[in-house]
Amino acid sequence: MDLSDLFGEPIDIITRADLLDDGQLVAVDEQTTRELGIRVPVALTRAAWEDCVAWDDEDTLRKVPQDEGGRLRDVLVMARGAARRAARSSTDRPIAFTVLRVPRTGGGLLARPVALSLLLHQGDDGEPVLTISLASENWHRD
Predict the structure, then answer these.
(1) Closest residue by Cα to residue 123 from 9, 8, 27, 4
(2) What pTM was estimated for this model as a whole?
(3) Which residue in 65, 70, 100, 129 has a CA-CA distance of 20 to 30 Å to 112?
């Protein structure tokens, strides 16, 4: 039995491209991923980007000198390591990993851990893609 037998045809299918277009996913530029040895397209959920990557001059004045490029590379390096460790077990489930980052909000100046999740899955055309989210997000769970 197919789900459409129970619920009818889907009203709308949301694609990865749709999520990128409306800002729910933030694409990482290919040059950055290639420099780090990642050979598939990578995107972060908006929540993961805002928590772990986003950083501006005002954040530097309030907190510590950092920039988005360095924060993004930290996330990608940790994701790459987690993916390599998980490759030995060949899982199709999300891969948990942790990144230390200085939070943008609050008064703290020290890096704190944040739990992230990495999922290797098929893109809109069946190609392999990676998506990084906060572990607390449930967009990829079945």
Answers:
(1) 27
(2) 0.86
(3) 129
